[in-house]
Amino acid sequence: MATEDSYVPNAFDAEFDNFWDTVSCYAANTFPFEERCAFVAKAKDCNRSTNVLPYMRIMACDLNCVNEFEQVIFLTLFMGLCYEILVLLIHVCNKYYSPALKAVSRFLRMNEHVAGVTLLAFGNSSADLFSNLASVNANVPVFANSLAAALFVSMVSGGLICYMSPFKMNAYESVRDILFLIFGSMLLQYFLASSEHVSETSFIVMFLVYIFYILVNVVDVYLIRRALKTTNAQIDALLVGEMTPEKRKRLSELERNQAIYSRDMEVEIFERTNSGPNINKIRYTTLRMGRSTRISIDKKATRNVLHNRALGRNWGLFKDLFRVLRPINREKWRKGNIIKRAFMLTKIPAVILCCIYIPLVDYELDKHGWNKLLNCIQVMLNPAMSIMAIKALLSSRGNSLWYVAMAEESIYAVYSLPITMPIAVFMFIQSRTDVPPFYHSVFTVMNLTGSMFMIFICATEIDKVLEVIGHILKVEDDFMGATVKACTGSLGPLIANVAMALHGYPKMAYASAIGGPFFTVVMSASTVMHVKNLVGLPVSEANQTGNYGLNAFIFLNLGLFSTLLWSTTLGFFARRSVGIFSIVFYCIYLLFAILIHRKIIHSFSSDLPVTAAFGDI
């Protein structure tokens, strides 16, 4: 008989030694309510899985949940928090992110389509890539979740764009992008199905496919501009000398080509003529698509509209600051009903937070959004807050929460002040309050990066709240990833695309609704699976498609083929009816997923082979 001195540790002992390092935080839901606080306090996954707030710890320890009724009450409060985060997300996309994208696209001389498939698509989809890389060790079907997210963005986001802002699509570019997305999803599915493990060659091929896609879009714009330049030269040559019938016929052909080539040459800054559809009128759905005239903004006029050399450099300095920090517009409050006033009250935290953290550059506004004192403060505050938050998120390894680590990492924020403080002092001395300085456009960088950071935090936090609720309610992980998390994780792209469409850029928004899913499937999914291979985790068709992956794959391709069908049938006019069709199509996908989850129907995936515990079957 073995004694205590002769005992040799085995694999079970090692597993128990690392129990608190490896156990899932959601395992606390299997314990009695009174024991959950002690569990979440010891489990390191409860710290690692925290984005902003530790919901499991809040419920078990801070709120001291002791029964099912209190649990339902607290989950309802979490849903209210989701609404507040959603309000913040909408405010950031509408007021900060969209103007920044327009300014950057204008500076880079992009047209709407290229800006949509590059800047807007990458800005919308990169957050999903980074969050998946951060949780690369998690046992989740990456390919299935990427397909579900791509289906949501292409159908729901694209459908809302068509419904809220009907437009004439870019025929060739739209067909090309849809075919690229179909090809990318099928190619990655082929790589998964053809071998037991995804090789490095597969990742390189997928990477080259995405690079080729971007090059095709960029070269296409270059060739169009070159053709326009040649056409203009030919028209000028024909106008010299006597006009003959042959010249008139040739001139008519060249002018038609000129009109085609001149369409959407570069992104213009347009006035916002409306705030979107009146959803209270059902007749809006059946109205014909009207022709809307977009009026370009005179940047010089909006820049100098309040300029007065007779006033001092700092005239109205504090008045401007208090005006912009005021979260509620008095005129809108006076005219609003009780529902609008309630919504204004819920926006107060979002308005104040964004106003302090994100510099505003919007060429549609007077002075382009310039506020001398606030912008001087933001030059120091924006980099310091970003550095401190990002460093705290990266340095917390499970022993503590990120905001506890922030106190230790605050020194890195102080290190940025010797650089930013002299810049702020120079700005304060050199600039005026009534006109933005010549370097004001540089603030677009902080506007864009700050907006993207806020969108990433908001989208991932909503996703985390619903993940916690799903585990508490004992909802299957695969089902959550294919339905709820696919929607919540894509709220950022959805709101950003709709905001761009309502700002007068539906072509850019719809290009992002196709280009973003292409990035998600081709780059994000393949990159995460390649990293899984590098760290030694198994990657195969079975564990990457799960029970709902093939369902999402088939619906995605059916949706894209139906988009090709209605676009060519309707002459590439994106009507409100096709927007409703796309959203209903996604609802059918959700219905299939629910029926599969309830085991009423079988999924498209194959059943796992049955093996005997002893002997042969």
Describe the structure in your own words.
Strands 1-2 form a two-stranded antiparallel ribbon. The longest helix has 40 residues, at 68-107. 69% of the residues lie in helices and 1% in strands. The protein has 25 helices and two strands. It is an all-alpha fold and 617 residues long. Helix 6 crosses helix 15. 38% of the residues are buried. It is found in: Membrane.
Order of helices and strands: HHHHHHHHEHHHHHHHHHHHHHHHHEH
Task: Quote the distance from N terminus to C terminus.
Answer: 39 Å
Major sheet attributes: 2 strands, antiparallel
Count of distinct strands: 2
Low-confidence residue ranges: 274-284
> Order of strands side by side in the largest beta sheet?
1-2
User: What is the tally of helical segments?
Assistant: 25
Mean pLDDT: 83
Q: What is the structural class?
A: mainly alpha
Which outline best applies? globular
Which percent band covers the strand fraction? under 5%
Fraction of residues in helices?
55-70%
Tell me the radius of gyration.
28 Å
Helix-strand blueprint:
Layout: H1 11-17, H2 19-22, H3 33-42, H4 45-48, H5 55-62, H6 68-107, H7 112-134, H8 142-164, E1 167-168, H9 171-194, H10 200-238, H11 245-262, H12 299-304, H13 317-325, H14 330-335, H15 338-357, H16 372-395, H17 402-430, H18 443-472, H19 477-482, H20 484-488, H21 491-502, H22 506-534, H23 541-545, H24 549-569, E2 573-574, H25 576-597
